[in-house]
Amino acid sequence: MNPMPSFFRLMWFVAAISFVAGCSTTSPPKKVTPPAVVIEESAPPARFTIHAPELDVWNAVGQLLVRMDGVTYETRAQKLGLYAVEYRGEKFLILTKALLLSNEITSLTTEVRGALPTGKTSNSAPSRELLGLLEARLPAELLRIASEKKHPPAKKAVPKKKSAKPAVRR
């Protein structure tokens, strides 16, 4: 047997396969344009600072929250400086934190911020709105509380009970 004819058959077979593969009807890949990236300007975080001691701010925030319409006061933790509230259907935390004195901060200053239950700063519309209300009302509330400390309401005098003298045994 002559090996040449099998070689030519193999070459014809490879040529036929190449020809069929080159004539395929697949369309060229379409250019895919990525969607336009829209970067929305994020809202400022729900936070503000006030020149007052942390405990005074925490107490005043609590007084304001319990009197505000639409705020459901859930719980509080003084040592953590937090109130858990619900406002406009959203649950979040109101945190108060004393800021350290520095070159920029030269008097007692407290930061008040809204946070998610995970602790991350909240940027939601309800938390920003509630913090805006607190920021507007807090200075007057601090003054009201301070004036009550200076001039506490008069206490009613409670008459002392007369104690009977113990009987003397003889």
Kindly describe this structure.
This protein has a domain at 47-150: 2-Layer Sandwich (TATA-Binding Protein), CATH 3.30.310. It contains three helices and five strands; from the N terminus they run H-E-H-E-E-E-E-H. The protein has helices at residues 3-22, 54-67, 125-150, and strands at 47-50, 71-77, 82-87, 90-99, 109-115. It has a five-stranded antiparallel β-sheet, with helices on one face. A hairpin with a 4-residue loop joins strand 2 and strand 3. Helix 2 packs across helix 3. 16% of the residues are buried. The mean pLDDT is 80.
Question: TL;DR of this structure?
Answer:
The protein has 170 residues and is α+β, with helices and mostly antiparallel strands. The protein has three helices and five strands.
